Description:
By secondary structure, the protein is α+β, with helices and mostly antiparallel strands. The protein has a single domain (28-54, 77-207), classed as Sortase (Sortase, Chain: A, Beta Barrel), CATH 2.40.260.10. 29% of the residues lie in helices and 29% in strands. It contains 3 helices and 9 strands, in the order H-E-E-E-H-E-E-E-E-H-E-E. The protein has helices at 2-52, 108-111, 175-179, and strands at 80-82, 85-93, 98-103, 116-119, 127-130, 149-154, 159-171, 188-193, 199-207. Strands 1, 2, 3, 4, 5, 6, 7, 8 and 9 form a 9-stranded mixed β-sheet that branches. The termini are far apart. 26% of the residues are buried.
Amino acid sequence: MRSKCRKLCFVSGAALIFAAMCLCIFNITESRTAAKRSQASLSELKNAIVSTAKPTAAENTEDDLFAQYEEPAKTEMPTVSIDNTGYCGYLTIAELGLELPVINDFSYKALDIAPCRYSGSTDSSDLIIAAHNYSSHFGKLGSLSDGAEIVFTDCGGRAFHYSIISIEEIHGSNADEMLSKENSPWDMTLFTCTLSGRNRITVRAKLKY
């Protein structure tokens, strides 16, 4: 009886190890595939931005007598279409050695290619970007340092420089907290799933210039 139990435990253990190895290989393959696809899109996106961007002088709102009466900034962002997918710009995270294109419209299918704009915009100071926890995407997000710089370059060629002010975990079902600015005056948020998939590693950043 003991012999049968030992054999059953051995077989079960071996099956679990094999399943874990298969999952690990699958995740590595997915990460490498996503890296190739996102970098290919990034190259095309940069070329498109360079060819279409027009330098503009920064507006001095202090001299604008009508600024307080103007409509709030819209959440729409300029886009560039690559392979029938709209991109709103790209992220540069020097501390992680990452440069990634950002797809304008969020979907789970799009996340397999590159990070996606979850909501908001640069002009309304509430841009939220989501990505998978692939090592080639946001897998190392939680290791970023306070004060580290994140740069978002939009499809108009404007570069927005942000500084990290906090890193936290938010429960996956708590969308209100993800969108809330009550406890943190952030201008941009990056987030990804934890390994368990239950929580979201969330990086809050403030616009520097």
